[in-house]
Amino acid sequence: MPHWLTLADYKHGYTVHVLEGIEAALKRVQEDYEDWPDPDFTNEPANHLVGLAFVAIQNYLTEVPLIVRESQSDPAVRVRPMNDLLHDFGSHVPGTTLRDMEAIWHFANYWKHCDEWDRDWVKEAASKPNSSGRTIDILRRLGFSEATNHLMLEGIERVVQIEWWTSLTPLLARASEWRVQALSGCGCTVRQADA
Predict the structure, then answer these.
(1) What residues contact 31, with CB distance under 8 A and at least 6 apart?
(2) pTM here?
(3) At what angle do helices 40-61 and 10-32 cross, to 10 degrees?
(4) Is 194 helix (H, G, I), strand (E, B) or coil?
């Protein structure tokens, strides 16, 4: 019997509403700062809002290991770690061996925790190799450094290749595709969310 979460992707609808709210806020930022001569007045709040969108997508993805674990008939079967699932499914980021949801996952981690980090990424990565160190490694492999301004905007435009000022809907469509691929790849029967 399929796990109920593979039949009803309830987080999809809620995530749509969250992203719509962030899109409305991004439009408001553009309107509020339309006549400002310095684009940083727009980029700073927009960077914050795109970071929130990445976290919303990360939350949408988090239930996959739970569904796989609860779908197993043999409780001794080991569920693949999330990092493996992120790396094994989804679209490749051009010019890298990384996947799109893997990048989004680490953009979200960066956005949530960067203010807690040492500004020197080498020191930060050495002090926490399994948490911030992993995120820093992924960000570097994507071409970013601690000197990158507005990393969330750069990430969504260059890596995820979505124009943040138009729509965030493609983020969720790609996350939903990844969810179906990951669940199917782990042997779960799954139904894709309605758009």
Answers:
(1) none
(2) 0.89
(3) 180
(4) coil
SS3 123: helix
Q: Is 24 exposed, middle or buried (0-12, 13-18, 19+ CB in 10 A)?
A: exposed
Tokens of 95: 């010019």
3-state secondary structure of 73: coil
Tokens of 49: 């809002």
The residue with tokens 């179906």 is: 180
Cα(44)–Cα(94) distance, rounded to whole angstroms?
26
Give the sign of the dihedral formed by CA 54, CA 56, CA 60, CA 62.
positive
pLDDT for 41 beyond 80 = no
In this model, does residue 117 exceed pLDDT 90?
A: no
Residue whose token pair is 């790396």: 87
